[in-house]
């Protein structure tokens, strides 16, 4: 696996616990966009509320950032379930899901009572599975 792909997957895993917050922020940006104040006071009529609501729903549904985050979130959850291994989940939790990482790969291997090489192999298998799920490989 290329180093750039590996780093990208690591970044995705670090963001995984926050995806719901990010999606909500993007939806709020779409619902309440910044509108430049109009100097033309009293001119023209605005579109009805129903039209704005429909446009907003369509924009939220078609937004690329939101779709990408939801796709990544589903792929990570699916691969974690498919790994069917407590070792992989605990490794991801310790290395990527925590805000402040306290353990290194060696520390996680010691905590999970597996060898460092076994943990590296499991991580590589998980990353390859995730890359395939996302269509990156």
Nearest-integer average pLDDT = 85
| Uncertain stretches | none
Share of residues in helices: over 70%
Count of discrete alpha- or pi-helical segments spanning 4 or more residues = 7
Computed Rg: 21 Å
Order of helices and strands: HHHHHHH
**Shape estimate:** elongated
Strand content: under 5%
**Which class do the helix and strand fractions yield?**
mainly alpha
Cα(first) to Cα(last) distance is 8 Å
Task: Describe the secondary structure blueprint for this structure.
Elements (H helix, E strand, L loop, with lengths): L2 H13 L3 H13 L17 H14 L1 H20 L2 H12 L7 H8 L3 H18 L4
Helix pairs in contact: 1-5, 2-4, 4-7, 5-6, 6-7
If you had to describe this structure to a student in words, what would you say it looks like?
- The protein is mainly alpha-helical and 137 residues long.
- It is 72% helix and 0% strand.
- It is built from 7 helices and no strands.
- It has helices at residues 3-15, 19-31, 49-62, 64-83, 86-97, 105-112, 116-133.
- Helix 1 (3-15) crosses helix 5 and helix 4 packs across helix 7 (116-133).
Q: What's this entry about, in short?
A:
The protein has 137 residues and is mainly α.
